[in-house]
Amino acid sequence: MESQMIRPGHLTAHQTAQQLGITLGALRQLVYRGHLTRSGGSPRQPWYAFPDVAALAARRRERQSA
Q: Pairing state of beta strands 40-41 and 10-12?
């Protein structure tokens, strides 16, 4: 139920949380702690750059397998 057209190469908060396997609350904590930055959208419907999300997911997988 997205009310805005999202730019190519970006994910919504819901899509980002799904890609990382976390809740929206956990996603907000990652942003608050500086592990991920918003790259557009609005304060209520932020977007995240796909390369940033992919890099964070890779770091999380690497840390879990170590």
A: unpaired
DSSP states of the chain: ---SPPPTTEEEHHHHHHHHT--HHHHHHHHHTTSS---EE-SSSEEEEHHHHHHHHHHHHHHHH-
pTM for this structure? 0.84
Q: Is there a contact between 4 and 39 (Cβ–Cβ < 8 Å)? A: no
Rounded CA gap, 56 and 11, in Å? 13
The first and second tokens of residue 65, run together, are: 């397998």
Q: Which amino acid is at 64?
A: Q
- CA-based Rg of the chain, rounded to a whole angstrom? 12
Residue 48, CA distances (Å) to 11, 54, 55, 66 in order: 5, 10, 12, 27
Tens-place pLDDT, residues 45-59 = 999 999 999 999 999
